[in-house]
């Protein structure tokens, strides 16, 4: 519980930093600058993911296991192996970026103008991997306070140091800003990482191969899902840039951040509690079925009023988080928010594959879904621009929900209960009516209808949550303590 509260606070802090960074970028760089930044960042993230072999995941497990063995020599050797692998993979990613700079520029931007940018960004690939090595040690050794401080201080200093570059240099300050941010993160990670006592352990190449093979293999397999998501994201941004230019990429980045990052907080919060509970009952299909339905219903009840509210006031939200230059993305967001009604149940049901330890099934499920998500996005943008991306998001998650439901029903006898159908049907109608109202009504009637729909959705959610969680008692108890 203590660890959860620590990282809950870190997450909130990082979100605040993310919002501030997005606002600053939007005001100082505009859609074109945000688009360039997005293409550079996505390229570097993809290279890092392909070359770091998931050491940020497998390394934590191996360090924690070695620590729990109470064998000092084993822990020292595991730390030494991890350190060598971090350096090797970091240098590998950096060299690929350095020597492939011209090619990366041509792929991402359609020209060689950003070759020098990628040459400089090769430094960030190395710095990020070295920083992750220190984060892995802190997490594996359960030095959670130091890990939390490192995350928060690194994010804060990185933002503060990058602002002058964007303010004085504009678009020319993007690359220096990224480099200085990576350097700040590394130095902070190094400071906290050096608090850990390390033994000097001789390590031959043969030992490194033997000890490191398992760590790298497992890490790469665990990171495949993330690589697929990054690959789809990168390919789509490149396509948008080729078809519509960097300003369109910037608008898309802003829209998708609202859809997946800020609204996605609910998914992140749920995962912390939901996955362990599902894993504990995964062997019992009946109990797993009940838990999945319960989690889906609660998630929809919490999210639906938020989505309806955001749809009504999305123009204000965009101006507050970005600027009026980004208002062109609002129609994409309307359609995508309808897609989130389908993403919620699909996401909750999809966890059953991981909980049951069906890694291969999970991999193929994610691979297929990412392929048609990319296909739908390309078709959508080609014919209808940013609006088409919102529609493709909706269509993709309708298909994905059908896909995971079919697999779960076939393999684990899963079925949705009547409670889910009632909640989903009514809340989706509220969202659909909101979209229709936005399309056909002028101000102030659109806001009047929208406000009514927010109240109806909120009231329905409150009543249903009270039935399931005793919400009234929780609220009264909270204020009673005050």
How would you describe this structure to a colleague?
The protein is an all-alpha fold and 482 residues long. It has two domains: 2-220, no CATH class; 263-481, no CATH class. 88% of the residues lie in helices and 0% in strands. The chain contains 17 helices and no strands. It has helices at residues 2-51, 55-68, 72-99, 101-109, 115-140, 144-169, 174-193, 205-244, 246-262, 265-281, 285-312, 314-321, 330-355, 359-412, 418-440, 445-469, 471-481. The chain is globular. It is a multi-pass membrane protein.
- Runs with pLDDT <50, length 5+? none
Contiguous helical run count = 17
Helix content: over 70%
- Cα-to-Cα separation, first versus last residue: 22 Å
β-strand amount: under 5%
Number of strands: 0
SSE string, helix = H, strand = E? HHHHHHHHHHHHHHHHH
Alpha-beta content class: mainly alpha
Rg over alpha carbons:
24 Å
Whole-number mean pLDDT = 89
Biggest sheet, open or closed, and with what strands and sense? none
> How many discrete domains?
2
Cα shape: globular
Organism: Maribacter algicola
Protein name: O-antigen translocase
Membrane topology: Multi-pass membrane protein
Keywords: Cell membrane, Membrane, Transmembrane, Transmembrane helix
Quick summary of this structure?
The chain has 482 residues and is mainly alpha-helical. The chain contains 17 helices and no strands.
């Amino acid at each position: 519980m203590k660890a959860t509260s620590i990282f809950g606070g870190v997450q909130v802090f990082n979100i605040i930093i993310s919002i501030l960074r997005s606002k600053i970028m939007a005001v100082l760089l505009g859609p074109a600058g945000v688009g360039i930044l997005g293409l550079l960042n996505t390229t570097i993230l993809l290279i890092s993911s392909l070359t770091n072999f998931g050491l940020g995941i497998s390394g934590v497990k191996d360090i924690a296991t070695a620590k729990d063995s109470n064998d000092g020599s084993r822990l020292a050797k595991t730390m030494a192996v991890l350190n060598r692998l971090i350096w090797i993979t970091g240098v590998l990613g950096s060299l690929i970026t350095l020597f492939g700079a011209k090619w990366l520029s041509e792929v991402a931007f359609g020209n060689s103008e950003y070759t020098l940018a990628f040459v400089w960004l090769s430094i960030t690939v190395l710095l990020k991997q070295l920083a992750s090595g220190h984060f892995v040690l802190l997490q594996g050794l359960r030095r959670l306070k130091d890990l939390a401080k490192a995350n928060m201080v690194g994010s804060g200093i990185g933002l503060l140091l990058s602002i002058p570059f964007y303010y004085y240099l504009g678009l020319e300050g993007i690359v220096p800003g990224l480099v200085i941010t990576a350097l700040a993160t590394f130095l902070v990670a190094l400071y906290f990482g050096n608090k850990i006592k390390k033994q000097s352990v001789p390590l031959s190449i043969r030992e490194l191969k033997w000890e490191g093979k398992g760590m790298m293999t497992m890490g790469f397999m665990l990171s495949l899902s993330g690589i697929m998501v990054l690959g789809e994201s990168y390919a789509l941004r490149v396509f948008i840039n080729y078809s519509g230019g960097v300003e369109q990429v910037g608008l898309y980045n802003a829209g998708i951040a609202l859809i997946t990052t800020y609204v996605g907080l609910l998914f992140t919060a749920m995962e912390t509690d939901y996955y362990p509970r599902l894993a504990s009952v995964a062997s019992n299909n009946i109990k797993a079925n009940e838990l999945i339905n319960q989690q889906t219903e609660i998630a929809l009840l919490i999210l639906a009023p938020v989505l309806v509210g955001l749809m009504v006031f999305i123009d204000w939200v965009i101006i507050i988080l970005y600027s009026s230059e980004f208002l062109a993305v609002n129609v994409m967001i309307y359609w995508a928010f309808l897609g989130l009604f389908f993403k919620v149940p699909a996401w909750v049901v999809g966890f059953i594959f991981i909980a049951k330890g069906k890694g291969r099934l999970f991999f193929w499920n994610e691979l297929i879904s990412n392929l048609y998500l990319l296909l739908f996005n390309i078709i959508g943008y080609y014919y209808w621009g940013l609006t088409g991306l919102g529609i493709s998001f909706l269509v993709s998650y309708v298909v994905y929900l059908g896909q995971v439901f079919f697999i779960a029903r076939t393999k684990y006898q899963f079925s949705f209960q009547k409670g889910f159908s009632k909640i989903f049907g009514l809340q989706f109608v509220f969202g659909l009516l909101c979209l229709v109202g936005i399309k056909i009504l002028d101000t102030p009637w659109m806001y009047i209808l929208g406000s009514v729909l927010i109240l109806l959705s909120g009231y329905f959610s409150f009543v249903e949550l009270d039935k399931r969680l005793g919400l009234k008692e929780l609220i009264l108890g909270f204020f009673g303590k005050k």
